[in-house]
Structures are given as C-alpha cells and as structure tokens.
Design brief:
The complex is a heterotrimer of chains A (about 550), B (about 350) and C (about 260).
Chain A (H helix, E strand, L loop, with lengths): L14 H13 L1 H8 L3 E2 L7 H20 L8 E3 L11 E3 H11 L4 H28 L8 H22 L5 H15 L5 H9 L8 H31 L13 E6 H26 L5 H4 L15 H12 L3 E2 L2 E2 L1 E6 L2 E6 H29 L15 H21 L1 H7 L4 H40 L1 E8 L5 E6 L3 H8 L19 H14 L8 H10 L1 H15 L1
Antiparallel strand pairs in A: 1-4, 2-3, 5-6, 7-8, 9-10
Helix pairs in contact in A: 3-5, 3-10, 4-5, 5-6, 5-10, 6-9, 6-13, 7-8, 12-13, 12-14, 14-16, 16-17
Chain B lengths: L1 H5 L30 H4 L1 H31 L6 H32 L6 E4 L6 H18 L5 H13 L1 H6 L23 E3 L16 E6 L8 H8 L1 E5 L19 E5 L11 E3 L4 E3 L6 E3 L5 E4 L8 E2 L1 E3 L5 E3 L16
Antiparallel strand pairs in B: 2-3, 3-4, 4-5, 5-10, 6-7, 7-8, 8-9, 11-12
Helix pairs in contact in B: 3-4
Chain C lengths: L1 H5 L6 H19 L15 H14 L1 H4 L16 H10 L21 H14 L8 H4 L6 H11 L1 H4 L6 E2 L5 E2 L7 H10 L14 H17 L12 H24 L4
Antiparallel strand pairs in C: 1-2
Classes of the chains: A mainly alpha (about 550), B alpha+beta (about 350), C mainly alpha (about 260).
InterPro entries (chain A): Cyt_b/b6_N (IPR005797), Cytb/b6-like_sf (IPR027387), Di-haem_cyt_TM (IPR016174)
Protein name (chain A): Cytochrome bc1 complex cytochrome b subunit
Enzyme class (chain A): translocase
C-alpha cells in the first residue's frame, strides 16, 4: 500500500466524502474496493450452503454471547428456587440451575437458548450439505484440495463445538451422554482410564467437566473455527469461485454477478433471511427441553436417550455392534506377565472404525481421485454429479452408511412408532449398515448413467414434444424438437475420462501399483457414457429421417 | 443401442489429445439477456419499489412486536405466559429479520442490474513470481547460514523438539491417577440397601414378587463425593419366584428368598440399566439396548454389552432389613484396561 | 380469491406461506391445552356385583383365563390380582385382548363402567389383591410436583421417557406414553404392575409418593412446553429430523428463490 500521489491533490467536497477520505488515506481502502468491489461471483442455489454455515456461525456467536452472561459453569450443588414448579426444591448443579433461570426467568432467555441450539443443528447440517455439494460436483479438485481439507477440519470442529455445548446444561440427557463418552474413553487400551481421569478431573462425573467443556466451547473451539473460516475464505477469494459448465463459462473465466451491488445485496440479505428463519423456528418449536430431563444423577435415565443428530451416528454404531459373535466374546482378557488387561472390542470397534473410515476417505479423497484419474489440470468448471457416476455413487454410499447409523441411534423410536420389535430393528439395521451402502452405490451409479444416456438422447434427438404427426405415407411419428445451442453445449461439454490401461515399462513388466491403478481406473470409468460430439450429431441427423421430419416440422411450426 | 449410447470409437477423443479442439461443440457464449418486467415496464418497476418498502416496513413492525412481547407480556410463573412471550419475541425477531433480508434480496433481484458479467481467472502462481520467490528463499537461506552451520541447525532442532514437552507435562494435574477407586464401591458387609433417592432402608418383606426397587447404599447421600460414589453403587433390586433363579455354584446365597440385587451400571459404556420387565425377567439398557437375563445371573442375551451385570451379594440383618454381605466381587460398569 | 391465485407464483408467496404456516402452528399450539379428569369410583362391592361379574367373566374372559380365573396356557391366573388390576386392564381397553402379541394394546373400552366394576368385584372375591384406589388417595392437588418428578425420573422415566412420551422394551413390547391417562389408571398400574411393568407396592412408593407422581404427571401434561410445539418430546432425534427436513427445506426454498432470475 504505497502512499498514492493522486490523493495529494484530492480534496473531498461532501461530508461523507471527507470521512471516507480520512479513513481511506489511513487504511488504503481504495485498493480494497478496487480489488473486491466488482469481483464476480457465480450464482447458483447450491453455492449458498457455505453462506448458511457462515451465517449460522455468526448467529451462534451472537446468541451464545448473550447466554454466557447468564450461564454459570459450576457443578457446585444448589437447591433450585426459580419459577419452574416441577423442579423447585430439587438439588442440582449451579450450571443446570442457571440454564433453568435462562429459560424461565430471563426475558428472552428461552428464545435465545432455542435460537442457539437450533442454529447449532443447522450449522452442522449446513456444513455437511455444503461438503456434499463440493464433493458431488468435484469442487475439491486442483487447485482446491487444501480448502477441502480446511473444510473437513471445520466439520470436525463443528462437531466438537456442538458436543461441548450439548453437555453444558448438565441435565440428565447430556449427563448420560458424557457417561457414554466416559465409557468409550475407558475402553481405549493402556491410556483410556488415565484419559478419563484427566478429562473429568478424577472419577466420573466429578466437578470439573462442565467448566472444562465450557472453556473449550466458548473459547478454544470457536477461535479455531474462526481462524479456519478466515483461511477458508481467503482461499475462496484466491481461487475465485468454481462454476457449473454452461454457455459462456470456461475453465479460465468466472461468469456471474459483481459483488457490488447485486451479490453483496443478495448475500447480505441472505444473512437476515437465515436469522429470520431460525427465529421463526425458535419461536414456535421447542428444542432441548432440559426442564423435562431433570438434573444429572447417575441413577436415572430416560427412554429415548440420544445425542444430537451429528453425533447420533456414533451412538448408532455402538448400538449395532453385538457384544458377542456366536460364542465369541468381543471383550478380551489378555494375560500379561504383570496381570490381566481388558480389551473391549465391542466398544472400540463401533466407536472408532466407522469414524476412521469416513474421515480417512473424506480427507484423502482429492488425492485418491487424483491418482485414479492421473489428472493434474486445474478444474474451475464443476461436474454435474451424473457426469461422474462412480464418484457420485461413492458419495451416496457414504451418505447411506451415515444414515443407517443415525437410524440405528433411533432404533427404539423406530420400534415404538412403527410398532415393530426393537430387536428386529437392530437385526435389520445390522444387515443394512453393510448392504445399504453397496445398494446405494449400485443404484445411484445406475441412475447417474441413465441420466447421462438421457442427456445423450436429448442432445442427439432433441426433446420429445408430445406431438404426434402423421407423415404422408401414413407413418406416425412423435415430433422431437432439437435443443438450442446453449442447451446443447450444457449437455455435451463435460470431461469423460476413459479407462487407462497399465502400460508395461521398458522391461515389459507392469508394476503392481500400475495394476492396482488399472483396476481402479476400470472400476471408475468402465461404464462411461461419452458426451455427444458434433460429428456424431451430424451423423445422427443424416441417419434418422424422423429427426429430419422433426426439423421440417419445426420449420413448419415456425412458419405458422 | 449400446453402440450409440457409449459413443462410437473415433468420434470421442480422449482429453488432452490434439484433436480435441476439432470435434467439440463451440462455446456459444452467454445467452442473450432477457429483460425483466421491471426493466420494460415503469409501472412494474414502481410496484417492485413499493414492495421492497413494504417489506422493510414489515421489519419495523416485527421490531415493534418484539418490544410488545418484551415489555407488555410480563412473566407470571405460568408456562402459558412464557410460551406466549417466547412466541412473540421469536416472531417479532423473525419478521424484523425476514423483512430486511427478503426486502434487500427482492430489491437486488428486481431493480439492480441483472446482466451476467465475465471475469478472467488469473494464474494462481505466475511463473515469474515462482522464480523470484525461489531466488529470494535461496538468498535468505544463504544469508542465515543454516546450511553451512550444521552444529547450529542440529542443536536448534533438538531444542525445538524438546521445548514443547513441558507444555504437555504441565497438564498432568488435570486429574488424579486412577489407583484402585474403580474397583471399590460404598457397598460393604452389613451396609443397608436403601431407596433411591430418599435413602430409607428396605425390609425383605417390602419386596413383593414382581417389584423392582432402585437402591443406593445407606449413607450415600451424606458422603462428600456423592455423585461419584452413586455412579458406581446404584443397584436394582428385584424379587422373582426363587424357582426362576439359577444361581451358579458358590453364588446360591447371594440372594435372599428370590430377592436379587444387580449393579445398575451397564457393562457396555455405563448407562443405567434400569428397565426391568417383571414377566420376562429381562433388564434392558435404554441407551444401547443391551439386554440382560436375571434368570441367568444377568447374562447378556442381546446387544452390545459383552459381560454380565455384577451381582451384589445380599442378606437380611436382625431387624429384617436387606444388607449387603460384601462389596461387589468385581469392578462395576464399563470395562477398562486395568480391569483384569 | 382470483387475485390470490394470480399472486401465488409471486416471489414473496413462499415467504408469506412460510410465515403463515409458522404463525398458525405456533398459534394453535399456544391455544391448545388438554385437561385430564379423574373419575370417581367406589370401592365397595355388593354380592350382586360379584354375581353379575361372575356371569360376565364366564362369558367374556374364561376362554383364556379359565373357569374360576385359575389361568390356562394362554393367560395367567387372576386369583389375587385384585380389583385394581381388573379396573386397569378392562378400564383401559387392554382386556379382553384383541389378538395375541407381545403385549395387550390399548383399544376402545369394551365394557361399561358398571360391567367393569362387576368384573372387578368378581376377581376381587377370588383372593386378596390391590383394591381400586379411592378418590381421596387420587387427589393430586395436594401432591408435591417436584418430589413426584424426582421419583418419576428414578422409577419410571427409563421406560416411559422423562417427559412421559413412552419408550421401547424388548421384542416388540413398549412402555406407553402417559398423557391422557387418568390418575386412577396411573395409580392402579403402579400397584398392580400390568404386563411387564414392575410392581411398585406401597412399601416401595408410598401412597403419598404416588400422589406426588400423579401430581407431577398432571402438571407436565397440562402445561405443555414453554418453547412451543414439543415435536413429540422425543428428544434429539425428532429435533434433528426437523432441522433437516423443515429447517433446511425452508432455507433451500429461499436459496432457490434468491438465485433465480426475476421474471
């Protein structure tokens, strides 16, 4: 930001101009405006989810700050004497009592609590949907791999933020959630018991955990989230936004609306819309009615004890895992020279394995796919999900895997609401957690391929108009209307990588890695549907006279 | 059709090959701009303007509604009133926000220019920059002398690797070491079984067949670390027909006339296994559905738990109250590495 | 009406509809409240009641429970279950059982109050058992809701849910939701332990404690949720489904409107 010579002679005339000049000549705002004032952002509804996540995060900061003024993260015992009758006189922790006070005695406190919790659920959901959009459209490809990683980290941080917040009211529901965390932690070999004692400051539940989670929840986790959001947005600006393929859009341009005024107005207005929707939900729908659950006590428990949706899948995995396979106990007693140690695979496997699978695949995906395609080009044009059938199918398999586990976390509710046996629900879901992703993979891949073929049909033969025409020699045909150039370009301009066969090296040998690569490449691209080429389209017009009739017909329609 | 749908060889060209440009549809460019109603019709433009203003007015009304809820719906300890206030505050905020948001977006959509604009992308890393940067880094490294002076480099490396260790060690006092506490509970010979939460003792005759009592050890409510002890000591007491029980050798006298007591803490991850079905004699954990059969000494018959619930040996004292004959014979609750 | 239908494609229609829907839901919820009424019941039976009850029993129940209610392979003996048990099972429509299943379902009550009373009189005459509670025992107005809440959470919530919304048991059995259940039936269920529910006799939960529990259930049943619609009081699962379907659905509708070109 060099001191400009042009501004030396500039004398602002209006009052606003004077203020602006005062600021500008000190912070160099002109160059910022020059850089960003007319920056182009492409417009598509699927591009808005990241904004939803960002805005819900801002709403979380606002509502959360309000809550911190009234909440007291102490686990000291107290006797409740607030206005909620069914709990008056009950012994509880100060944390729970202050949450009740926020709900019943602070004007607008209940509203803020509900906004905060609904926003938290929406925040994680928006992050998840945003990531699914990025995945299914291939927006994680070069040069955006690192930003994908930052996104994955943000997802994990948002889970952490959600879970630490969920536990703060110190009610029966969240207390039993912590109890489960404690149980899972103790199952970790060698260090598990120590971890649990360090986290809880001694034996569960102790008197330290709520205060510790509070610091994580209001300080550490949001700070790291903010940092990551900053990096994330910096990279978005650096890369410029990706765009869907279409007429006028290329890999070297961005087509859309300038920040000022249109995009800024839309994005700015959207913040108020998200806030408004959340406020409307918080006005009319209860969330986390902690007054129902009562204070935490290790003895009682409520039917239907589940975590929030984003942690639900781990709980579901815990439910699905059988403790014994046949006569084979999954809890081992391992004899060591110094004594026997216990290894609880019935807890460790479901708590860790699905998470490891999902997160490893998620973090590594840009490089896995890059290795399979051997594609080192930059991609600023997105894939329509149908044009990458195998990637789409893998994504769907992941979603199904997740959903089955979430369903498992609500197995008791499924049982009571559909009048089926709880045990049968568990048996079915155990099968489905394996079969579901495979079925999801096959079905969605077939659907993608079918949609691609439909695109080919439309590109080659035009759109079915539903009009039946009788030709002079008596034949009936349905008139197909060729698509216009813009539509044709949208339907045909996509990459369709082919299977790459492993090539032998100079010794005539194919390395094992190349073989694996060849197999993976076949798995990905064997069933490819190639985009229509101009020569094909021309040939098809020569071959099929019904299209010609269609074209003639169209001309006759036009002349009418 | 397979032929046509897969593309005939020769008409499709692998990406990157030189003919690519030849057989590909030409990019037709951005479709022509279609003017909106407000672009063509001044009356529509005026209408849109009024709509935006109306939406902003709705926002003002929403804000007023919020204040009405805040100041004119005083809380009076009834749930109805709180619900009404929450609804008013919420809808007021919702209108205030949606009015602004929808208004601005409507303004942008109808009245601001809607011509799509094209902007070129630039190289993320221009080659000239890369060369300059490489040169700069080389110069910096050279000037610092880190390559030429391995002694400095290696000692620095060692120092940097060691320096964070205190930052980890300082967290040692987060909690005490486990010691033996996970293997001990408040139960001991002669400790009375009392009702949860009142702490009143239970006579054997109080426990009729089909009953289930939620039990804590006598004196639990008075100890200092009440919740920690309770988290290990809670017990479920049931009476069955003695013929339904099948105690294994050595455990015949752990119950009293069909009355048995089992730890309520699940051996899976520690939820209270509090659901007792008095006809099937099954115990169910509501968290992860582990099912234990009291007829078979609380053996796991379904779900993720792998180990039976520990049984608390009980007997009756001189006054007819139920007491523990000893502590649990094994650690209660979820398993842990040192459980052994 | 015509003007309305013309405007339905208007960009603001979605917003208006959403606001209307939310307003209506909230409004209806705020207005709705249910009240339970406890029924009066006398506990003294005449010989005539027993006589009539015996006839009803032979005609309607003996096929499963056996002549003289001594039980069969299909159904347990009713000797000593008491009048409370009959009043609960028959008075809630669980008995006579409609079909074999994991447990007897609630259905429209099959007998008149008088007939139920006579059946209860007959079964009570077979052996001593819990009697139908009298009105003064059921009077919950004196009950301590907070104490009742504590007892409910320790003894009942694990099956019936902390908000009494019901829950699942093993193999198709379930603990029903308790809203709308009369004080008498709640009391009778506690003393008799119907189906797989454990018995909570007066030594375990005293009659005063039972009053407290009934007072607690009355209170939470009447007051509703302060935060608006309670989504079934089912906890995080229904909340998660709601935000994914309704919350995200509305947001997506807005994003589509926001990025579509104006006509």
């Amino acid at each position: 930001m060099s001191s400009s010579t042009a501004t030396q002679d500039f004398v602002p005339k209006t009052r606003v101009g004077k203020v602006t000049d005062y600021v500008d000549s000190r912070v160099g705002g002109s160059s910022l405006v020059k850089e960003f004032g007319r920056k182009i952002f492409p417009d598509h509804w699927t591009f808005m989810f990241g904004e939803v996540a960002l805005y819900t995060f801002v709403i979380l900061l606002i509502s959360g700050t309000f809550l911190t003024f009234f909440y007291d993260p102490s686990m000291a015992e107290t006797e409740y004497d607030g206005s909620y009758l069914p709990l008056r006189g009950v012994e509880m922790s100060v944390a729970y009592a202050s949450t009740l006070d926020i709900s019943f005695d602070v004007r607008g406190g209940l509203f803020m609590r509900q906004v905060h919790h609904w926003a938290a659920l929406l925040f994680v959901a928006a992050v998840a949907v945003h990531m699914l959009r990025v995945f299914f459209t291939g927006a994680f490809r070069k040069p955006r791999e690192f930003n994908w990683i930052i996104g994955c980290v943000l997802l994990i941080l948002s889970l952490a933020a959600g879970f630490t917040g969920y536990s703060l009211p110190d009610d029966l529901l969240s207390g039993n959630g912590l109890r489960i965390i404690d149980g899972v932690m103790k199952a970790i070999p060698v260090i598990g018991t120590y971890l649990s004692f360090f986290l809880f400051g001694g034996e569960f539940p102790g008197t330290a955990i709520v205060g510790r989670l509070y610091v994580l929840h209001i300080l550490l986790v949001p700070a790291v989230i903010l940092l990551m959001i900053g990096l994330h947005l910096f990279l978005v600006v650096l890369h410029k936004h990706s765009q869907y393929p279409g007429p006028g859009r290329t890999n070297t341009n961005v087509v859309g609306y300038p920040v000022g005024p249109v995009y800024a107005a839309k994005a700015g207005g959207f913040f108020f819309i998200v806030f408004g929707v959340l406020a409307a939900i918080a006005a009319a729908f209860t969330i986390n009615p902690i007054w129902n659950y009562g204070p935490y006590d290790p003895s009682p428990v409520s039917a239907g004890t589940q975590p929030d949706w984003y942690i639900g899948w781990v709980d579901g995995a815990l439910r699905l895992m059988p403790g014994t396979l046949g006569n084979f106990d999954l809890e081992f007693m391992i004899p060591f020279p110094w004594g026997t140690n216990a290894l609880s695979l019935n807890v460790l496997i479901p708590a860790l394995v699905p998470a490891i699978i999902l997160f490893t695949l998620m973090f590594a995906w840009p490089w896995i796919e890059g290795w399979v395609t051997k594609d080192t080009r930059e991609h600023h044009l997105l894939d329509r999900p149908r044009n990458a059938p195998t990637r789409t199918a893998i994504g769907v398999a992941g979603v199904v895997f997740y959903c089955v586990m979430w369903a498992a976390a609500s197995s008791d509710l499924i049982a009571t609401h559909f009048m089926v046996s709880l045990n049968d629900v568990t048996y079915w879901l155990r099968a489905l957690v394996i079969i579901g992703p495979i079925l999801g993979f096959m079905v969605s891949r077939r659907i993608s391929l079918a949609l691609q073929r439909k695109d080919r049909e439309i590109a080659l033969h035009g759109r079915e108009t539903g009009r039946i025409v009788r030709l002079p020699h008596g034949e009936f045909i349905e008139v197909h209307e060729p698509v216009d150039d813009y539509k044709l370009y949208t339907l045909t301009s996509f990459d369709s990588p082919r299977v790459s066969q492993p090539t032998p090296d100079e010794n005539g040998k194919v390395s094992r890695l190349d073989k694996v690569h060849g197999r993976l490449s076949r798995f990905f691209f064997e069933d490819r549907v190639a985009p229509v080429r101009p020569s094909e389209l021309a040939a098809s017009h020569d071959d099929h006279h019904d299209e010609v009739a269609g074209t003639k017909d169209r001309e006759s329609i036009a002349s009418r | 059709m397979a032929d046509a749908s897969h593309g005939t060889p020769g008409t499709t060209i692998e990406f990157g090959s030189p003919n690519e440009l030849v057989d590909e549809f030409e990019n037709p460019g951005i479709p022509p701009h279609r003017p909106r109603l407000a672009d063509r019709d001044p009356r529509a433009e005026k209408r849109a303007e009024r709509q935006v203003a109306l939406l902003f007015t709705i926002s003002v009304i929403g804000t007023v509604l919020f204040f009405v809820g805040y100041f004119f719906i005083p809380l009076n300890d009834t749930i109805e009133r709180l619900r009404l206030q929450n609804l008013t505050l919420g809808l007021g905020t919702a209108f205030a926000m949606l009015g602004i948001g929808v208004g601005i977006v409507h303004w942008a959509k109808t009245l601001m220019p809607d011509h799509e604009v094209t902007e070129d992308r630039h190289d993320i890393r221009p080659e000239s920059d890369r060369q300059d940067a490489e040169q700069m880094v080389n110069d910096i490294l050279e000037e610092s002398g880190i390559k030429r002076r391995p002694l400095i480099r290696n000692t620095l490396l060692g120092a940097v690797l060691l320096a964070p260790l205190p930052a980890i060690a300082i967290f040692r006092d987060l909690g005490p070491l486990p010691g033996n506490v996970l293997k001990e509970t408040l139960w001991d010979t002669g400790v009375r079984l009392t009702r949860d939460p009142s702490g009143t003792p239970i006579r054997a005759s109080d426990v009729t067949i089909g009953s289930a009592f939620h039990v804590i050890p006598e004196g639990l409510n008075e100890v200092e670390d009440m919740l920690e002890e309770k988290a290990k000591a809670v017990v479920l007491l049931m009476r069955l027909d003695p013929n339904d029980l099948n105690p294994s050798p050595g455990r015949e006298d752990w119950g009293y006339d069909g009355i048995v007591a089992y730890s309520k803490i699940c051996t899976h991850v520690g939820c209270p296994v509090a659901l007792y079905e008095q006809h099937t004699h099954h115990l169910l954990c509501p968290c992860h559905q582990s099912t234990f059969d009291v007829e078979q000494e609380a053996k796991v018959i379904f779900g993720p738990a792998a180990r039976p619930l520990p049984q608390l040996p009980i007997e009756v004292d001189d006054e007819g109250y139920l007491v523990a004959s000893s502590d649990f014979q094994e650690p209660v609750g979820p398993s842990f590495w040192e459980r052994g | 009406m015509k003007a309305l239908s013309q405007r339905r494609r208007h960009p603001l229609a979605a917003v208006a509809l959403l606001l209307m829907a939310l307003l209506t839901t909230g409004g209806i919820y705020a207005a709705a409240s249910t009240a339970n009424e406890a029924q009066a019941q006398t506990t003294s039976f005449t010989a005539n009641d027993v006589e009539e009850g015996s006839k009803l029993f032979t005609a309607n129940c003996a096929s499963c429970h056996g002549m003289g209610a001594t039980g069969s392979d299909a159904a347990p003996s009713l000797v000593g279950v008491g009048a409370a048990s009959v009043d609960f099972q028959v008075g809630t429509g669980r008995m006579p059982m409609q079909m074999d299943g994991p447990q007897a379902q609630v259905k429209p009550v099959q007998f008149t109050e008088e007939q139920t009373r006579q059946l209860a009189a007959y079964v009570a005459s077979l052996g001593a058992g819990p009697a139908i509670p009298s009105d003064d025992v059921l009077d919950a107005s004196e009950g301590d809701t907070a104490a009742g809440g504590e007892l409910f959470r320790v003894n009942c919530a694990m099956c019936h849910n902390a908000a009494a919304a019901g829950g699942a048991l093993t193999r198709g059995k379930y603990a029903p939701a308790l809203d709308g259940t009369s004080a008498k039936h709640i009391y009778e269920a506690m003393v008799t332990g119907p189906q797989n529910m454990p018995v909570f006799n007066d030594a375990n939960i005293t009659p005063e404690d039972k009053q407290d529990i009934i007072a607690f259930l009355d209170t939470i049943g009447e007051q509703g949720s302060p935060g608006g619609a309670d989504l079934g009081s089912l906890g995080p699962v229904s909340e998660g489904l709601f935000i994914w379907v309704a919350g995200l659905g509305v947001i997506i509708a807005f994003t589509v409107w926001l990025t579509s070109r104006s006509s």
